[in-house]
Amino acid sequence: MGRITLDKVTKSFGEVNVIPPLDLTINDGEFVVFVGPSGCGKSTLLRLIAGLEDVTSGQIRIDGEDATDMPPAKRGLAMVFQSYALYPHMSVRKNIAFPMKMAGMPQDEQNRRIEAAAKSLNLTDYLDRRPGQLSGGQRQRVAIGRAIVREPSAFLFDEPLSNLDAALRVNMRLEISELHNALKTTMIYVTHDQVEAMTMADKIVVLRAGNIEQVGSPLELYKTPRNEFVAGFIGSPKMNLIRGETAAQKGAATIGIRPEHLAASTEGGLWQGTVGVAEHLGSDTFLHVHDHGLGDEPLTVRVDGEMAVRHGDRIFLTPDESKLHRFDKQGLRI
Amino acid sequence: MATKASRAAARLMISPAVLLLLGWMIVPLSMTLYFSFLRYNLLMPGMEEFTGWTNYRFFLTDPAFTAALWNTLLLVGGVLLITTVGGTLLALLMDQPFWGQGIVRILVIAPFFVMPTVSALVWKNMFMNPVNGLFAHVAKFFGLQPYDFLAQAPLGSIIFIVSWQWLPFATLILLTALQSLDQEQLEAAEMDGAGALSRFFYIMLPHLARAITVVILIQTIFLLSVFAEILVTTNGGPGVASTNLTYLIYMQSLLQFDVGGGSAGGVVAIILANIVAIFLMRMIGKNLEA
Ligand SMILES: Nc1ncnc2c1ncn2[C@@H]1O[C@H](COP(=O)(O)OP(=O)(O)O)[C@@H](O)[C@H]1O
Ligand SMILES: [Mg+2]
């Protein structure tokens, strides 16, 4: 079981109010991702749930039980830290065993769980090494192993992949998703990387300055962003936002169109501009189009990787009207 | 510093310093060795003659030597125990956030800046004196018999005074080490269900191992040669109850004018210091490896 409810939770550090009143329900077995720019209070929120910080006001319930004043160890949650926080003087085996040792679990049960965790995380050959003798990805797995053996009611991850190189990150992303499928335990995952959020989450919570901007599945957020901030944050490359005359014609203060919803052509179209930088990814090419007369920001367009366009070429763009997002003066979706 | 040329240049440039230091050490050491085999008493000038191992035999069979040896070990061990345990506890305390932290930290290192003679005299005359000392006044206030610390427990009192001087050093080093401990490790341990005591023994103490080793090694070097505190408080007495090796050598060579005997004692002290050093490195040296 791992149903976590936040009820009007706030957090201030002295005068600074980091989390304004916030309500959130995380259902049992869900993979929830908190995403938002750096410094928006994601870690603080996670640490409040973990019990590493005290809430200033409000209530946290775990499985219906008031956990607001419970010490961290009693909450039955396991956390994987950004720095991994492995114990450097203990072997991998001792690291993984530590929470079980603290709980006073019988030795043979400890060994059984260590073997099982090591097997599923490919750590069997490294059990007698120190953390200092492992690679970043292996350390990450030890940290996960230390969390798994406790059989917690929910896992908390704080930017666990940000210290890994790009290839390893993709790998570990997959492994964590597979772990979730296998364990079906609630997981709360903090990241500033919207790609991680989109690929892993059942439910994404977009945060800005401690406020929840939108909660929803990845596709909901992609298709119907509630405001300009979410629209700009979710999706890669970013949505093009156009203001002024063009937007007013559509009855909005701002209109948004994703790079993949713009049709590009060399013959003709609604808008036109010159190609600036062309980013060739092989399957796709992203074009930055300047001098389009719609604003100062260049427009980003996704075109087929085969399309032969070069710096300085003239190009015509036509937006897919059905995929157009409209926002009012307050930035809210119309 | 990788190429042959740069290594050669480095050796060349460092050699004057090395040679100077070597000479600085070799000359007094060989003179001590030489004197230790002479019958050399300042009261009988011009009568020096070679006597072989006699000086060593006298020094090592002197009952004062065994007493001094034990006193030295007790002094070093006692002060090390008090300063490392006390230093760890004080460091833990000072690592907590509290009001006036900066001032308290400066106050805590203050004893380290007081000269040994001065601090020993202050303790002797203002605190431990059985008539005028503060402790005597306190005892009298409670209707107790004042305790004559330096006469009744001379070695214990000296251990206490020296510990008072070295506690700040230990505290400071251990505090710095404690502050370098990754807070997330402590939080991880907390989430793993470790209480305050478990966190101390499983996380903090192993992290402090290296700093504690440094404290022990550095202090041992200085504690083997404690002298001023003994000279100004007990003069090694009563009897030889608070005489350590350093003080015994001083008595031999300067109070009895026996340069030969004193030199022999010096050589013995050097050998003993090395035994202690080897013993320490065996015991805790591995903590210094990365
Ligand atoms: N212990 C603290 N004391 C004061 N301010 C803090 C503390 N921890 C975090 N903050 C502030 O709270 C805000 C949110 O921090 P954090 O939750 O770490 O952001 P994120 O993890 O989203 O990058 C930041 O502005 C940060 O400066
Ligand atoms: Mg953070």
From TrEMBL, chain A:
Q: Which CDD domains match?
A: ABC_MalK_N (cd03301)
Q: What terms describe the molecular function in GO for this protein? A: ATP binding
Instruction: Tell me its family.
Output: Belongs to the ABC transporter superfamily.
Record Pfam families: ABC_tran, TOBE_2
> What name is this protein filed under?
ABC transporter ATP-binding protein
Keyword ATP-binding found:
yes
Tell me the keywords, alphabetical order: ATP-binding, Nucleotide-binding, Transport
Segment forming the signal sequence: none
Residue ranges constituting the ABC transporter domain according to the UniProt record: 4-234
SMART domains registered for this protein in UniProt: AAA
Name the domain of life.
Bacteria
TrEMBL record, chain B:
Keywords associated with the record: Cell membrane, Membrane, Transmembrane, Transmembrane helix, Transport
Q: Which Gene3D superfamilies does the record match to this protein?
A: MetI-like
Q: How does it sit in the membrane?
A: Multi-pass membrane protein
- In which organism is this protein found? Salipiger mangrovisoli
Chief localization class? membrane
Q: What is this protein called?
A: Sugar ABC transporter permease
Transmembrane feature ranges? 12-37, 68-92, 104-123, 155-178, 208-228, 259-281
The similarity annotation says: Belongs to the binding-protein-dependent transport system permease family.
Q: Which domain of life is it from?
A: Bacteria
Pfam families for this protein: BPD_transp_1
